[in-house]
Input
Amino acid sequence: MAFRNYTPEIWAAEFIVQLQKALVYAGPAIVNHDYEGQIQAYGDTVHITGMGTVTVGDYAGTVTYQDVDDAGTTLVIDQQKYFGVKVKDVDKAQALNGGRAVAQIMSNAAYALSDVADQFVAGLYTQVSAGNVLTAVTDLTATGTAYNTLVALGVKLDEANVPSEGRYAVVPSWYHGLLLKDPNFINAEKSGSTAPLINGQVGEAAGFRILKSNNNPQPSAGTTYVVQAGTPMAISFANQLVENEALRDPDAFTDRLRGLHVYGAKVTYPDGLACVTCTRPAGI
Output
C-alpha cells in the first residue's frame, strides 16, 4: 500500500499554499485570483464580464440612450504541468511524523511548478499597451537612474488613469542592488513590518511595492531585462492541483507520487501595466 498516511485532499491544499508562497509574478501582489474557484480541469474557460465605456452628452431637454456593448473576455486554462517521482521504501520508513517524506516532496514539487508558472505569467509583459512602454534604458550607472526609471513608469500609469493603490514593480536582483544605494528606496527590513517580505517583496520606491525576482524576462540573451510595473487588476490568474495521488510501483520496491497542475492567465487591463527594458551594468 502506497503511503498509508497520504491524504490527497490535505496534501493538495498544502501544495497550493506552498505554491502561492513561492510565486512572484503569479503571486497576489501582481495578479488577481478572482476566478480561481471557477476552474476544475485543463481546458476550462472562465467568462469575465465587462461593460463598454459610457459617453457623456450635453443636456438640451432630451436624453439619448446608447447601447453599451459587452466588453467581457475569457480566461482559458490552457497550461498543464505535472510532477512524478518515485520514493524508496526506506524514505517512507523515515517519515515518522505524519508523512514527513511526502510533505518534503510536495514542497519541492510546489516550488518547481511555481517557477514554471511564474515564468509563464512573466512573459505576458508583451501584452502591455504600446503607450506604456518606455524607451529602453541602456545606462543605469548614474546615481538615481534606477529610481528615476521607476518614477517614469509611474508617470505612464498615472497618464493611463491607473489607481495608485496596490501598484508594484518587479525588478531583477541586480536592479534591487542599485536601488539599495538610493536614499529614496525604503528597504523592507527597515520598514518595521514583516508583511513586505512575502512573495519576493523587498521594499518600496516611487509609489511602488518593489518585488525581486529571478524570472524577469530577457527579450534577448545577454544583459537586457524587462522591469514590469502595474496593478493586480491588470492580470487574472487561476490555478488548481487537479490530480494528486500515490501509487505502488509494480516493478520495484518503491512508491510513486504524482500530481497535475493546471492554470491560465489573461491580461484583462493592458493599460494597467507599464514596462521598460534595462541593460545590466558591467560589474554588477
Observations:
- The chain has five helices and eleven strands.
